[in-house]
Specification:
Elements lengths: L4 E4 H31 L7 H25 L1 E4 L13 E7 L4 E8 L10 E3 L3 H6 L7 E6 L2 E12 L2
Parallel strand pairs: 1-2, 4-5
Antiparallel strand pairs: 3-4, 3-7, 6-7
Helix pairs in contact: 1-2
């Protein structure tokens, strides 16, 4: 289980769409750019060719990365969730007990984590602390800055 990457249904769909786009669209685009650059002659001084080849290498690396990830993935669905507890895939509203600030996060696996979209990993300090918590429960999070306390205000399944 340790090697398995955890994804929500949404995260799985996004990765599958990205993989399809890279394989079908990006590969063709880059192939056309490389072909056109080759037709221009001397490749040793052709910056467009070099840039396209570099981009092609990045695309192929990303395709391989996604394919490896999808080989060993565990998808969490609404069926896997206990609606009364914080689980992977749910949205949770919490209040910082010291600063009285509220925040809403979606709990996801580490592969999907994106702080700019308020998606936090179940492996992050806050994620670990609130996993399994119920509405009204206060949890403690140990951080380098000290002990923080958060109260779980709402839990919403979002798969």
């Amino acid at each position: 289980m340790e090697d398995k990457k955890i994804l929500t249904k949404e995260g799985l769909r996004e990765l599958e769409e990205e993989l399809e786009h890279l394989k079908v669209v990006k590969r063709k685009e880059l192939s056309a750019i490389i072909k056109e650059a080759r037709e221009q002659g001397d490749l040793s001084e052709n910056a467009e060719y070099d840039a396209a080849r570099d981009e092609q290498a990045k695309v192929e690396a990303r395709i391989e990365e996604i394919q490896l990830l999808l080989k060993d993935v565990e998808v969490h669905t609404e069926d896997d969730m206990d609606a009364d507890k914080v689980n992977i895939g749910c949205k949770v509203k919490i209040r910082d007990m010291e600063y009285k600030e509220e925040a809403v996060y979606r709990i996801v696996g580490s592969t999907e984590a994106n702080s700019l979209k308020n998606k936090i990993s179940n492996e992050s300090p806050i994620g670990k602390a609130i996993m399994g918590a119920k509405v009204g429960q206060t949890v403690k999070v140990e951080t380098p800055a000290g002990l923080l306390k958060y109260k779980v205000l709402e839990i919403e399944s979002s798969n």
